[in-house]
Structure formats: structure tokens, C-alpha cells
């Protein structure tokens, strides 16, 4: 696990100082070592030896040593024929791939997956990504061909951001690294801001910064150093073909294999344990796989507010499995004290991620560098209320599909205007549904969204908004059945843009690598092939049956409760000063491209009980993010 930064150009050059600034901003991602390849100079690993001047190829890496912690695994790494790699992630089947490559005549100098990825590229070219099982984002630079090849894993577990300048392409593991290097301008992207206000996260491929893009999951980027535009190509798409397999047994087999692969490490591996079915399943299989004398360390957070805390269930599961368990009770004062560091850790603004920040910090302070998480199960096995809620809303409004497009817009605008005189009616939401070209997408946003189109216009002084429902409809092919369409939206929008992004940012800020067994490619593809009737209506019955011999019934039979911070209480009480500091600062709100009076209306609506806590919190986060990073 690492952080990467680089620039490959042809008509343009970038200074070594810019590269160094970009690398320094990634120190938390890789505190163990660093290296920089400079064209015409070679690999530099000592700051006093950094050359001066500008260069057309710069490849940097900050290393968090997990596999082969010796210097043999340091990056950038190269081959004899001039291929250089900077790499972030873990390819869990690297041992098997290494043996295949050895059979083809390749030799290895380290026990790292980085070297396997590099030599797989030598052997298979751009098709190498088809052989990798894991999470990754990497760049290979072929110095002979003067070509850059980049790739990102199938689910987007590891981040990859880039910006195409007139004379080259710059890339990094974090948007803020591109800002700190001076490669990207500190200018908010209006589309990114609008997306954040809609969802509470910035929908890819846009980012919060103008000119910076996110490489889509399951995609590659090739840049020929001849002045042509970078070429992006998808190598993976989700499939929902149904299977005839015996579901519970096959799921157990694949999950066990996935956990086993993710235990490969030369440093201790722990786990997040909330006491829910997903994390309990992961930890139970860790204990089953590990040697009997292994010390499995688990971590959870809870709250003094009992209605929100799952600490009791986590401790019950830890006692059952006899893990070394550490829990932390997080208070509003803790959030207030840590808020500057939480915002600093956010590569892009998000209304979520605070929980991951605290549990990651807890694990890291205990000496853990790798932790397993149950993330991904709800999206694959239909564990969210969203699956039922979207379907119900869509059935209400599917008649709109027969309404001509030329009538929807005027009708929506009329409802919106009428709504100004009916403040207690949900007319803004009705107007969005009427205007939408995708009733499916509109129904999904009603379940997952924050601010309506009218609210966003008021907040941004009438700035142009995006029809996100149409984007969702196109992305997830709503002509399929509703449940599978929701699964696709949860996986490619909510999970990739929020859960995975937040998990990566918050954990790497603590120099902690988080691995997600449920998102193993083979396991995920099988889970998606399970017929809907075997996944709906019984809160992940297939998973419960798969782990019933290792997870007690007190966990499997418990009604699912989402992990929620008591922010609705805190923002009205202990965290009121945080709200005051933001909502009374007109200059800060305006820097965040927000209209102060409209923002204060949001706060008032929250205090009146008309809005959930996420809406005012979104304004706090966006404003604080701008204050910290711009």
C-alpha cells in the first residue's frame, strides 16, 4: 500500500520541487520510504540528491511496507529494458502469478506484488489487469516507447486522479496531492459542488477540483508522448447473469478463500468488528483460517448514546471468537477536537467517513498496519432499505415514462413555483421527479440524495445544476428489473464514490491499509449472480446460512441497524459551536460557492425538524474543506 504521484509529458515540463511537494503531501499514505524517478537522472531516494530544474517524466512513490518490508520492495521499481512502475494497492494472487511468470522465464529480486505487477505487464502488456485479483492503482512508464499506462482495480477500491495538461498528464493518489504540487489550480468545479450537494459525495469521474478527473473503476489510461489525448478504456463491467449454484455453500467457499488471500502480509493483520453480520463473518473466518495460537486483534467504536451504539454486540462477538478486542466510545467533543484532522484527511468533501477515521486511528495506534472490513456485503447481497424504498417510489412514478419530454420540464417548473408558497409540502422533490428523464434515477436520488434541484439553486445563487437522475439511469441501465438496477447504483455510485473513497482516505491518513474481502472479483461476481428472490425479503439470508456454523445466532438473528453517528443530537447540542462558526461566516460560505442566507435557511430548517442532519453537515464539511485545502 502506497501513495503515488507522477507526471509524463512531451511539450511541457514540471519541476522536481513540484514533484517533491506532491510526494510530501502523501507522507501518511507511505511513511516507510520514498523514491522518485527523474528522466535523465534515474531513481533518487535521498532529498539532498534531488536534482534541480524541470523534467518531462517524474514518477514518485511513498511506501507503506506490507509485503517484503525490505528495501527490495522500494519504489519506483524498474526492469532491465526500461519499464518503470509506481504502484498502490495489493494484488492478492501475486504468489500464483509469480510462479506462472517464473515458468515463462522471469526472475524476481523481491517478494513483493509490485514486482509481479511490473513483470506481468512485460509479459501480457495492457491485458495484465485481467490477471490481477485485488485492489490497485498503478502506472507503468515504458521509457523506450515513451508511453504511460495506468490502471485501476475493478471496483475502484484504490483511487487514481489525473489531470491532462496541454503537454502531458499528471496523476496522484489524492486530489490534494495535485493541488499541493501546483499541478492543479485551486478552483472548485461547479459540477463537483453540485454533485456533492445532491449526494453528500462528489460523483466520479468529476472531482471537487476543476480540471482533475477520477479514472473510472475497471479502466485503463494510456498516454502516448506524442501530443495526443490520453485514451481511457474499460476492461471490466458488472454482470448480473443468474447462477444455478448452491448459493450458501458456494458463497462460504469463496468468502473463505477471499479472507485467506487477504491475510497475506508480512505485518500483523487486524479487523474492524461492529458486531453486525458482515464484519462478524469476516472475523469468524479469520479465526477459522489463522493458526490456533494467532492473536486476532479487532476494533470497534461506539457512543455514550445507547440507541446509536453497537459496542455491546461487537464485544459479544469478540468474546465468542476470543479476539483481542479494543473499543472506543466516541463523543461529540472528540469529533469537535478531531474535526480539523478529519477534514484534512478528506481528499474530497464527504458527509460520511467520520466513523472510519476513528476506528482506523484506534487500530493504527495499536500498531496495526492492515485491517479487514466487511464493506461491500450490503451492496452485493441487498442489505440496505434502499432496495425496497427505490422500488416502491419507482412504482409510484413509472407512469411518467409515458409523458412526453416536452411536458415534463414545464410541469416540473410549475410545481416548483407553486411550492414556494407551500413550504411544508415536498413540492421540490415532486418537481425533480416530474422533470427527470429517468424516473428510476429520480427514485434512487429520493432515497440517497440530500438537496433537491431547487434547494441547490438557492444555495448556489442560481448556478446551473446537473440532471443526476439521467446520469444514473444511463449508468445502470434501468431497463433491467428494479432490484438489480438499485444494486448497480449502490455499487457504482454510493459504494465507489462514498464508502470506498472515504475508507481509503480516512484509513490511509493513519497509515493503515484496509482490505475488503467481499469485493474480491470472483466472490462479487458470484454474489451478483444469485437470483433476487434468494437475497430479498430476509436480510441476507444467503450469507447467514453460509456462516451459521461460525457466527452465533444472537448475531445472525439480530435485526439489521445501520451504523449511524448521533449527529442529529450533537448538532443541536455539543456541536452547535461548529455550526455557528460556519453558518455565521459569510466569507467562508461564499468561498465554498454558497449563498449565506440560503445556507442559514438550511440550518433553520434542520433546527425546526424539517431536514435531517446530513444537510447542514454537508454545508459544514464543504466549507471546512475549502478552508483547509483551498
Automatic annotation (TrEMBL):
Keywords: Amino-acid biosynthesis, Asparagine biosynthesis, ATP-binding, Glutamine amidotransferase, Nucleotide-binding. InterPro entries: Asn_synth_AEB (IPR006426), Asn_synthase (IPR001962), ASN_synthetase/amidase (IPR051786), AsnB_N (IPR033738), GATase_2_dom (IPR017932), Ntn_hydrolases_N (IPR029055), Rossmann-like_a/b/a_fold (IPR014729). PANTHER family: ASPARAGINE SYNTHETASE (PTHR43284:SF1), ASPARAGINE SYNTHETASE (GLUTAMINE-HYDROLYZING) (PTHR43284). This is Putative asparagine synthetase [glutamine-hydrolyzing]. Its EC number is 6.3.5.4. Belongs to the asparagine synthetase family. The keyword Nucleotide-binding applies. The keyword Chloroplast does not apply. It catalyses: L-aspartate + L-glutamine + ATP + H2O = L-asparagine + L-glutamate + AMP + diphosphate + H(+). One of its GO terms (biological process) is asparagine biosynthetic process. Pfam families: Asn_synthase, GATase_7. GO terms for cellular component: cytosol. Residues 2-226 form the Glutamine amidotransferase type-2 domain. L-glutamine binds at residue 113. ATP binds at residues 301, 373-374. The active site is at 2 (for gatase activity). One of its GO terms (molecular function) is asparagine synthase (glutamine-hydrolyzing) activity. Signal peptide: none annotated. It comes from Haloarcula pellucida.
Amino acid at each position: 500500500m502506497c501513495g503515488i504521484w507522477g507526471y509524463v509529458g512531451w511539450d511541457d515540463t514540471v519541476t522536481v520541487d513540484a514533484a517533491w511537494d506532491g510526494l510530501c503531501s502523501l507522507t501518511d499514505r507511505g511513511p516507510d520510504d520514498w523514491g522518485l524517478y527523474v528522466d535523465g537522472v534515474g531513481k533518487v531516494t535521498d532529498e539532498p540528491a534531488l536534482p534541480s530544474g524541470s523534467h518531462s517524466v517524474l514518477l514518485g512513490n511513498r511506501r507503506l511496507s506490507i509485503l517484503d518490508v525490505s528495501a527490495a520492495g522500494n519504489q519506483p521499481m524498474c526492469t532491465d529494458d526500461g519499464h518503470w512502475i509506481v504502484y498502490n494497492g495489493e494484488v492478492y494472487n501475486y504468489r500464483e502469478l509469480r510462479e506462472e511468470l517464473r515458468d515463462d522465464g522471469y526472475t524476481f529480486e523481491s517478494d513483493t506484488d509490485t514486482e509481479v505487477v511490473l513483470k506481468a505487464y512485460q509479459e501480457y502488456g495492457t491485458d495484465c489487469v485481467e490477471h490481477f485479483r485485488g485492489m490497485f492503482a498503478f502506472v507503468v512508464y515504458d521509457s523506450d516507447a515513451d508511453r504511460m499506462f495506468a490502471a485501476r482495480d475493478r471496483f475502484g477500491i484504490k483511487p487514481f486522479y489525473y489531470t491532462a495538461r496541454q503537454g502531458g498528464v499528471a496523476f496522484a493518489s489524492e486530489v490534494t496531492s495535485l493541488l499541493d504540487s501546483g499541478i492543479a489550480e485551486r478552483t472548485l468545479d461547479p459540477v463537483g459542488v453540485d454533485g456533492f450537494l445532491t449526494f453528500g459525495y462528489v460523483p466520479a469521474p468529476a472531482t471537487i477540483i476543476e480540471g482533475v478527473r477520477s479514472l473510472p473503476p475497471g479502466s485503463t489510461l494510456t498516454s502516448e508522448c506524442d501530443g495526443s489525448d490520453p485514451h481511457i478504456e474499460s476492461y471490466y463491467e458488472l454482470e448480473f447473469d443468474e447462477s444455478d449454484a448452491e448459493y450458501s455453500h458456494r458463497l462460504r467457499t469463496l468468502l473463505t478463500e477471499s479472507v485467506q488471500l487477504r491475510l497475506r502480509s508480512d505485518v500483523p493483520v487486524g479487523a474492524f468488528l461492529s458486531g453486525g453480520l458482515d464484519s462478524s463473518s469476516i472475523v469468524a473466518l479469520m479465526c477459522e483460517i489463522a493458526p490456533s495460537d494467532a492473536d486476532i486483534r479487532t476494533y470497534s467504536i461506539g457512543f455514550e448514546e445507547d440507541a446509536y451504539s453497537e459496542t455491546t454486540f461487537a464485544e459479544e462477538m469478540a468474546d465468542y471468537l476470543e479476539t483481542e478486542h479494543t473499543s472506543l466510545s466516541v463523543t461529540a467533543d472528540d469529533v469537535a477536537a478531531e474535526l480539523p484532522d478529519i477534514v484534512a484527511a478528506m481528499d474530497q468533501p464527504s458527509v460520511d467517513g467520520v466513523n472510519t477515521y476513528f476506528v482506523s486511528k484506534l487500530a493504527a495506534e495499536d500498531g496495526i498496519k492492515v485491517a479487514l472490513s466487511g464493506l461491500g456485503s450490503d451492496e452485493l447481497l441487498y442489505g440496505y432499505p434502499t432496495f425496497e424504498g427505490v422500488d416502491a417510489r419507482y412504482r409510484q412514478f413509472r407512469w411518467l415514462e409515458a409523458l412526453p419530454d416536452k411536458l415534463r420540464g414545464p410541469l416540473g417548473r410549475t410545481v416548483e413555483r407553486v411550492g414556494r408558497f407551500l413550504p411544508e409540502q415536498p413540492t421540490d422533490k415532486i418537481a425533480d421527479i416530474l422533470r427527470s428523464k429517468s424516473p428510476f434515477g429520480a427514485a434512487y436520488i429520493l432515497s440517497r440524495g440530500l438537496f433537491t434541484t431547487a434547494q441547490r439553486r438557492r444555495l448556489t445563487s442560481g448556478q446551473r445544476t446537473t440532471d443526476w437522475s439521467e446520469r444514473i439511469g444511463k449508468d445502470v441501465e434501468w431497463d433491467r428489473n428494479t432490484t438489480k438496477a438499485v444494486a448497480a447504483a449502490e455499487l457504482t455510485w454510493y459504494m465507489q464514490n462514498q464508502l470506498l473513497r472515504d475508507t481509503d482516505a480516512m484509513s490511509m491518513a493513519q497509515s493503515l491499509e484496509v482490505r475488503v474481502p467481499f469485493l474480491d472479483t470472483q466472490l462479487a461476481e458470484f454474489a451478483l449472480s444469485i437470483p433476487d428472490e434468494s437475497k430479498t425479503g430476509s436480510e441476507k439470508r444467503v450469507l447467514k446460512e453460509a456462516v451459521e456454523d461460525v457466527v452465533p445466532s444472537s448475531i445472525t438473528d439480530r435485526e439489521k441497524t445501520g451504523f449511524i453517528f448521533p449527529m442529529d443530537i450533537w448538532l443541536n447540542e455539543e456541536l452547535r459551536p461548529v455550526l455557528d462558526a460556519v453558518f455565521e461566516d459569510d466569507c467562508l460560505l461564499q468561498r465554498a460557492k454558497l449563498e449565506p442566507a440560503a445556507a442559514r435557511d438550511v440550518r433553520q430548517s434542520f433546527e425546526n425538524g424539517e431536514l435531517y442532519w446530513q444537510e447542514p453537515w454537508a454545508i459544514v464539511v464543504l466549507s471546512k474543506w475549502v478552508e483547509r485545502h483551498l
